[in-house]
Structure formats: structure tokens, C-alpha cells
Amino acid sequence: DKIAVLPGDGIGPEVMDEALKVLHKTEEKFSFKLEIEKGLIGGAAIDATGHPLPEETQKLALGSDAVLLGSIGGPKWDNLAPELTPELGGLLALRKLLSLYINLRPAVVYEELKESSPLSPKVLSGKVDLLTVRELAHGIYFGQPKKLTDEEAFDTMIYTREQVEQIAHVAFRQAKMRRGKVTSVDKANVLSSSKLWRKVVIEVAKDYPEVTLEHMYVDNAAMQLMLNPLQFDVILTSNLFGDILSDESAAICGSLGMLPSASLGAEISLYEPAGGSAPDIAGQGKANPIAQILSLAMMLETSFEKVEAATAIRKAVDKVIADGHRTGDIAKAGDEIISTSSMGDLI
Amino acid sequence: DKIAVLPGDGIGPEVMDEALKVLHKTEEKFSFKLEIEKGLIGGAAIDATGHPLPEETQKLALGSDAVLLGSIGGPKWDNLAPELTPELGGLLALRKLLSLYINLRPAVVYEELKESSPLSPKVLSGKVDLLTVRELAHGIYFGQPKKLTDEEAFDTMIYTREQVEQIAHVAFRQAKMRRGKVTSVDKANVLSSSKLWRKVVIEVAKDYPEVTLEHMYVDNAAMQLMLNPLQFDVILTSNLFGDILSDESAAICGSLGMLPSASLGAEISLYEPAGGSAPDIAGQGKANPIAQILSLAMMLETSFEKVEAATAIRKAVDKVIADGHRTGDIAKAGDEIISTSSMGDLI
Ligand SMILES: CC(C)[C@H](C(=O)O)[C@@H](O)C(=O)O
Ligand SMILES: CC(C)[C@H](C(=O)O)[C@@H](O)C(=O)O
């Protein structure tokens, strides 16, 4: 089994180092070995080759069983033509290349880190543990036609029955393994694409009688995430709404430094932290490597069925958190702050 | 001067009664008189006439200088054909009829009500006082073509230069009267319509050198509203993003019962509470009439230039809040809860 490792920009390389440290330790302990090949993506690739997703990286990704990504982008590359930015030319192009239509974004508030959350203790009376299942390959991101002139511009938010069915099944299967509830988010009171979305989700739900289905308008969902995030288990939604709501969900956790994500397609999957490249703290040993390490755990479990190894990694993370070890992003006043690599060592 | 009063459904009629009580008192005190004519809208109109925006109401609205709306909708009318629902056939149709392209949604957290906010005291270290300026007449809500079949559905998110210019000017003018900052929210890294949006906003900004302009992606804005709402003064955004972000902003305030809104067009404007019809508490004297009363104040100020009268109403609201009077939605444990009409009387 082979993985492509793409550290990318900003804090990407340093948190990736820690994830690989953890991978090697885990390989030792559970006696398996993944072949690792590193590649360039994003700004790092632009600087070296002129393109955010060089042909070589494309080949590498397509020839691997899974891709572990760090993070991409930074002010240095913000003013390039859109197709050449790390975000569009790198990340979005890679998603497209691998036909990744499923995006799983868990948001979990650790008991010990409740104080990092912007929400008040009253709202956090239980454990926030929700999963956004976002459709990642269609909708308004890629829908045609698009047009841009100086006088007028438009985008097309489009879904087919099949596209909605595919992602809906993913959400219901996830809910079965979790607390058995799917909240499908749309704007069916206004949008045609949402009306089809809702209709198809209701049909798919019939295959999962043990899962409760609830519908919520996106404006209300944005409100409910703040007022009562505990009501959510699995949030199923479209590409654009998922972009917005998963970021809002991540905010509940206070730091993005703890949140992994997975993007799955038919074959090759991509795993990356939910947060960005944080250029302001890059290279200073301040970054929290946990999101990258938990992305590794998701990869081991989902792409390689190494459930035990993934569980061991998650337990190690739980333990360092319970033991009070903190990088700057999750520290509160008076806490001792440790470095990226110390956090990696401890885990 | 004439106003159309449309109480609508749920708590609409009872909070409207209180607003009219306050209006009459204000008329006495400031010696002016508005002609009031009541009309039907939403579910109440469906029950009486079969249509959520009967011809008579359309005529009434078009013949008035301003419309004061209560709230619309409820489970009873949820399963009608979309064009006949209170929301689409009533509210959206009325917005269209009056060509209301500006939606102003203030979100203010009162010092005394900080505990009603879902955000922690740490985040609320200052006063949240932001205004969403939402484009209300175009974008994906009304963009053509739209299509809905059983196999495929789409919507068109479209903006013209002129439409963006119009709403951008409104936002900058508002910012000049406030703290001088506009945060324009888009998804210009992905959407063509957002690219034009950003371009035009940058151009319009040149007319307002005293206002600071900042751009933010909608996913990040959803996150920042939770992590640090104090950074915002005026949020300028499109119809769909404004729908989502203004609801999230409203959530910061804990209760929707305090938030008014105004929808302005070339001539006749519409004023309504930010919250919904709350059918669960309707008719029980539990609703908070303040959002309706502050909507009245916005109307007096904006449509009739009765600035003093509006200020007097706002001061009266501030005072009852400072004096500790609470309806259920803004009460904390131990507070004495007063009724809708007592709150109206006090104000
Ligand atoms: C970088 C950007 C194109 C991307 C998206 O909108 O999908 C990001 O916000 C994300 O959510 O992964
Ligand atoms: C009722 C609905 C059509 C409406 C909208 O989406 O504009 C509402 O959510 C609002 O924000 O006023």
C-alpha cells in the first residue's frame, strides 16, 4: 500500500513531520508498512515548478492508495490568476482529479477544551460531536454554465438525482455508526436544486429505517449551530452550504488545530486538517499537529482498514489532552505551552 | 402619510397590537398622525381568501408609504404548493411587488442581556453591534433560469454590475453613519458572481475614502461571527449569503425577539421583526413584542424622518431592559416573566 504525502505550505510541513513520526511509531507497534512518497502542492509547487498541482504530483496521487495533505496557500500566492492559486489550481483541482465527492468533517469539543470554545458553558451542557457530510464534487462549485464579464456574472447551482443519492447514502451509513440522526440542510423554500435535494434525501432515508431524518433550512442551521449544537449528529448538505456550515461547526471547537477531515471518492481518498496553512505562525514550532495526526488516523481506518491502529492514535491524543499538554491554540492563561514537535513526541 | 399594517400569523397579531399601542402613544407625544389600514397576509390570508397575498393586500401595500409586517407562516400551511405558501407566495412575493432590494438587519447584544447570548463572556468582551446589509431582490433567489424535474434541478446565482453597485452604496452609507467599516462577504475564490461582486464593491469603495473595506469568504465569515463578532460593523453581502449570515448574527443575540429589520426599495419600505411566527407560543401572551416595536421605530425614522420619535421608542426599550423587565425569551432563571402586553404597556 502506498500513500502520497503532500505537506504543502505554511504550517503544513511541520505538522506533517509530526504525523509521519506518529505513523512510523504506529507501523512498528501494529506491524505494517506503508510506502510513502512525498510530492509538491500549492505555493511550494508554484515556487518550484510554476504550477500549484504539477503533473508529477498528479501522477503520484493517481498512483497512490491515499493522499495525506498538509495545508496550502498563503499571501505570497494570493494575487495569481485564479486557476493558478494554491486553492483553485491546487486543492480544488486535486479534488476534481480524484473525483472526491464526499467530504467528512467531524467537529468535536473535548471535555478538557471546553474553555477554548466561543460558546458559553450553558450551551455546551453535553458533548458536541457532529459530522458534516458535504457533497464535494458538484453543486455551484463546478456547475455549468458559469460566466464572468465586467457587466454580469453567474454560476449554476445544479444537482442530479444520482449525485444527491450518492452523498445521502454516505450520510445515512455514517449516522448508523453514530447516534442515528441525519439533519439534511437545504433551502427548499426558495431553491429548485434544494427541492430535488430534499425529495431524494427523503427517498434514500427509506433504506435506513433505523436513522431519524430531519430537514432544516440553511439559515436556521446557521442559527441552530450556535444556539444548540448538541442537537446535531450528522449534517448532510451540498457543496456550498457544507463549506459554510462545516467552518461554523469547526468554530464551535475554538481551534481548528484539532479537526481532521476526509475527502472520499470511488478509489483514492484524501485526508487533511480542517484548518488552513496559518502563514503567521509557520516555521516557528507553534502549530498544533493534532489535526494532521487525526487526519492520519482517519486515513488508516478508512483507506487501509487499520481500525486498531487508528483507535490507538486517537487514544494517544485523548491522553495528551487529558494530561494537560497544550499547544498555544488550545492553551488557556497559565497553561504551559509546548511545541509542535513535543506534542508529536508525546502522542 | 399612510401605513399598511399586516399582522400575519402566529405571534404576529399580538406583537403588532403592542407596536400599535406604542405608535399611538408616540403620535400623541410627538403630535403627528399616520393613517393605518390593516390587511391580510400569509396563512391568515390563505384561510380567508385562498391566497397568501390577496389582490386587496397588494393594492393596500402599493397605496401606502410604508408596510409594517408582523410575521408569517406555520405548520398548517407548510404543505401547500410552493407559490401558495406564506413564505414564497406571501413574503417573497411582497418583496418582489415592492421591488425591495435592500435588507437591513441589525444585531445588537444588550449589555444587560449578555447572558442570553450563546457566546461566552470571553468572546463578548465588548458590545456586539453589527448590521447586515443584504441584497434582497436578485441573486440566486430570483435568478433565471431555474429548473426542477425528477432527475435534475438547478438555480442561477446571477448579479449585474448595477445591482451590486446599488446595494454596495447602501452599505457604505450605513458604515459612514456607524463605525466606518464594511466587511464584504463573498466566495470569490470559487464563484464567478462573487468575483464580479468583489470587483464592483472595490470600485464603489473609492467614493467612500473614510470607510474601511475588508473582504471575507463566506465560510470564514460564518466562523468569525462565532469566534469574534466584535470585529464587524457593516456586513455587505448577497441575497443567499445574507440570509445565512444574518440569521447566524441574530443567534448571537440569543433571542430573535429583540431584532427588527427593514427592507427598502425605491419608494415603499417594509419593516418586520427578524424572528418568525413562533406558532408554538402564539396567542399565549408569551411573545416578546420588542422586535416589532423596534421595527416600528425603524419605520418612523427611515420612511417618515421621525428621528426624535424613533429615538424616544428606542430609549423606552433600553429603559425597560435596564429596569430588568423580561419576557420569557430573554429571562434567566429567577427572573419574573411578564406578558406581551405588559411589556408593551411598559414601553
Ligand atoms: C479553499 C476553498 C476553495 C475550499 C472550499 O471552498 O471548498 C475551502 O474553503 C474548504 O472548505 O476546503
Ligand atoms: C422565508 C424565507 C423565504 C426568507 C428568506 O430566505 O429570505 C427568510 O428566511 C428571511 O430571511 O427573511
Automatic annotation (TrEMBL), chains A, B:
PANTHER family for the chain: 3-ISOPROPYLMALATE DEHYDROGENASE
Entry cofactors: Mg(2+); Mn(2+)
Biological role stated in the UniProt entry: Catalyzes the oxidation of 3-carboxy-2-hydroxy-4-methylpentanoate (3-isopropylmalate) to 3-carboxy-4-methyl-2-oxopentanoate. The product decarboxylates to 4-methyl-2 oxopentanoate.
Subunit structure: Homodimer.
Top EC group: oxidoreductase
Protein name per UniProt: 3-isopropylmalate dehydrogenase
Entry GO terms, CC: cytosol
Catalytic reaction equation(s): (2R,3S)-3-isopropylmalate + NAD(+) = 4-methyl-2-oxopentanoate + CO2 + NADH
Cell compartments where the protein resides: Cytoplasm
Keyword Disulfide bond recorded: no
Record-listed substrate binding positions: R95, R105, R134, D219
UniProt organism field: Spirochaeta isovalerica
Cofactor binding, note field: Binds 1 Mg(2+) or Mn(2+) ion per subunit.
Residues the entry annotates as binding NAD(+): 74-87, 276-288
Major location (coarse): cytoplasm
Residue numbers marked as site, Important for catalysis: Y141, K187
GO process annotations (BP): L-leucine biosynthetic process
Keyword list, A-Z: Amino-acid biosynthesis, Branched-chain amino acid biosynthesis, Cytoplasm, Leucine biosynthesis, Magnesium, Manganese, Metal-binding, NAD, Oxidoreductase
Record-listed E.C. numbers: 1.1.1.85
Binding of Mg(2+), residues: D219, D243, D247
NCBIfam families per UniProt: leuB (TIGR00169)
Pathway: Amino-acid biosynthesis; L-leucine biosynthesis; L-leucine from 3-methyl-2-oxobutanoate: step 3/4
Start and end residues of each Isopropylmalate dehydrogenase-like domain: 2-347
A GO term for molecular function: NAD binding
InterPro entries tied to this protein: IsoCit/isopropylmalate_DH_CS, IsoPropMal-DH-like_dom, Isopropylmalate_DH
Annotated family: Belongs to the isocitrate and isopropylmalate dehydrogenases family. LeuB type 1 subfamily.
